[in-house]
């Protein structure tokens, strides 16, 4: 049985309900491009705060939903998986280029504003807001920067830097 640490994984989706009577399960794929997951041969299911690998016998993806049959999982065993979260290793994420980035990959990046220069280091990302916000730490203060194309001007992975153009007055709100 293969185990994966949560910090080395990303959220793929959730098992939502049974599908038919042959042990198949419906899953919701919480990803931008579900079709990229048509060839999965396994996923990690969160059970008792541990991520456990389940091999996939068959998978059919349609939109952001899929029907999956796990190897050696039938009936009641399948029913016990309903409502469980699914994860994959971070290494399976396709690399992004340009100003597109995964939130986890920019933690620790230095942030430079077009007008203010260095404004701090990315400490985290708030995703449960109307729009995602970067949490930038500067001199024991938190500056929240919206993750939108008009603000994020350059993501420099090589130097672990992000260059932004913050809306007028935004940074001053946090520093005064």
- Largest sheet entry: 6 strands, antiparallel, barrel
Q: Proportion of β residues?
A: over 45%
**Strand tally:** 13
User: Span between N and C termini?
Assistant: 54 Å
Report the principal-axis shape. elongated
The pLDDT mean sits at 90
What structural class should be given to the helix and strand makeup? mainly beta
Residue runs with pLDDT of under 50 for 5 or more positions: none
Number of discrete helical segments: 3
Strand order of the largest sheet: 2-3-6-5-4-7
Radius of gyration, CA atoms, in whole angstroms:
20 Å
Order of helices and strands: EEEEEEHEHEEEEEEH
Level of helix content? under 10%
Task: Provide structural commentary.
The strands form two sheets. Strands 2-3-6-5-4-7 form a six-stranded antiparallel beta barrel. It has a six-stranded mixed beta sheet with strand order 11-10-9-8-13-12. With about 180 residues, the chain is mainly β. The mean pLDDT is about 90. It contains three helices and 13 strands, in the order ββββββαβαββββββα.
Question: Concise description?
Answer:
The chain is mainly beta and 176 residues long. It contains three helices and 13 strands, in the order ββββββαβαββββββα.
Spell out the key features of this protein:
13 strands, 176 residues, 6-stranded mixed sheet, mainly beta
Q: How are the elements arranged and paired?
A:
Layout: E1 3-4, E2 9-19, E3 24-29, E4 42-47, E5 50-62, E6 65-70, H1 75-79, E7 85-89, H2 103-106, E8 110-113, E9 117-126, E10 133-138, E11 141-146, E12 152-156, E13 161-164, H3 170-175
Parallel strand pairs: 8-13
Antiparallel strand pairs: 1-5, 2-3, 2-7, 3-6, 4-5, 4-7, 5-6, 8-9, 9-10, 10-11, 12-13
